[in-house]
Amino acid sequence: MVPSVLFKAACPDCHGRFELAASSFRLAIGGTSKTTFYSFTCPDCGGLIRKPAGERIVELLTRGGVSTMRLHFSSSPGD
Ligand SMILES: [Zn+2]
Q1: Are 19 and 9 in contact (CB under 8 A)?
Q2: Among 21, 47, 50, 51, which is disulfide-ready with 39 (CB 3.0 to 4.6 Å)?
Q3: Each residue of 11-60: pLDDT tens digit?
Q4: How far apart are CA 12 and CA 21, in angstroms?
Q5: Count of alpha carbons within 13 Å of 29, Cβ hemisphere only?
């Protein structure tokens, strides 16, 4: 049995506040903090929200079971 983790989120478009399950989020981890962000769909207005994710948020979401996508950059030839 998987415990359902709920994350508090807010929509900058309609200013709605709600709690969403981990499965509602997508986390994209880039090479820098500027390219690391999480996204979710607002249940109120249906808008796709994308917000920058700091280290704490990344850890929180990852632990909560949010699916993570690692972005690759062609600017790192040694990779
Ligand atoms: Zn909204």
Answers
A1: yes
A2: 50
A3: 999 999 999 999 999 999 998 888 999 999 999 999 999 999 999 999 99
A4: 19
A5: 13
